Amino acid sequence: MTLFRAVAGDPGPVLPGARILLRPPTMADFPAWAELREESRRFLAPWEPTWPADDLTRTAFKRRIKRYHREIRDEAGLPLFLIRRADDRLLGGLTLSNIRRGVTQSCSLGYWMGERFAGQGYMGEAVALVIPHVFTAMRLHRIEAASMPTNARSIRLLEKAGFAREGFARQYLLIDGRWQDHVLFGLVADEAAGRGPAGAGAAGERPLGIL
Question: Where does the record place the N-acetyltransferase domain (predicted)?
């Protein structure tokens, strides 16, 4: 079964929203991506794994794009960039990773926002777009997410989108060079059914995970 349909020659779906669209990254995104990540470095660092020394180089981005396309092809992940429709500007990214079939039927959600675009509701709209895609087009049963306890904005965003707190994991992920505790969240298909545009307009997003 194919989860993701190629659009305009690129693998993966394009999900349009009121202000943004979600689409897979391409090499043409490199200049905007590198600029946004560099200017947001201090903002992102407390919430992400330590960046490799060459992370913002074109060569590293090319490796990243190859990995993204391989994950989409193998139905193992779905990386998406947030693009503002008004001016085609890159705002951040969202990824569905660790896609599991069989008896699990689940995936993990992570995201990041450029500092200058945080707090404007864009990530709330992105999460609202991706939730029905997971449960309909991808036909999964469950979305998982994890947030550091100090990341109150992301916790509010997830809860507004319908995610329920499910537990606490000690030293769950290696973030900013240290093993960090995380609050665990989950959303299942029957809970999401019938909800409105979950998370739309949520304010003050911080990154959760990394692409």
Answer: 20-190
